[in-house]
Design a protein that fits this description.
Mopterin_synth/thiamin_S_b; Molybdopterin synthase subunit MoaD
């Protein structure tokens, strides 16, 4: 099952400067593991020591925040789109 992952510019150095990559996974957790297999080093930037998404990152499945769904257990289907969005602060 192919899932399209949108990669923010600061993380594209792990994806050979690609803004989108396709990975496999039946849920977000498996997708992160697949992403790490294809783009070594990216998981450390996405997840903390417990394997949970870092607080300054937001993950969306088809525009829905995974924190409002089932977090990393959010189910994925073929053709879904996962967006990784870094938090932006300003003043």
């Amino acid at each position: 099952m192919a899932v399209k992952v949108l990669i923010p510019t600061p993380l594209q150095k792990y994806t050979q400067e690609q803004a989108t990559v396709e990975c496999q996974g039946t849920n977000v957790s498996e997708l992160i593991e697949s992403l790490e297999s294809n783009c070594p080093g990216i998981k450390q930037r996405l997840c903390d020591e417990q394997g949970k998404p870092r607080r300054f990152l937001n993950l969306y499945v088809n525009g829905e925040d995974i924190r409002l769904l089932e977090n990393t257990e959010t189910k994925l289907n073929d053709g879904d789109e996962v967006s990784i969005v870094t938090a932006v602060a300003g003043g």
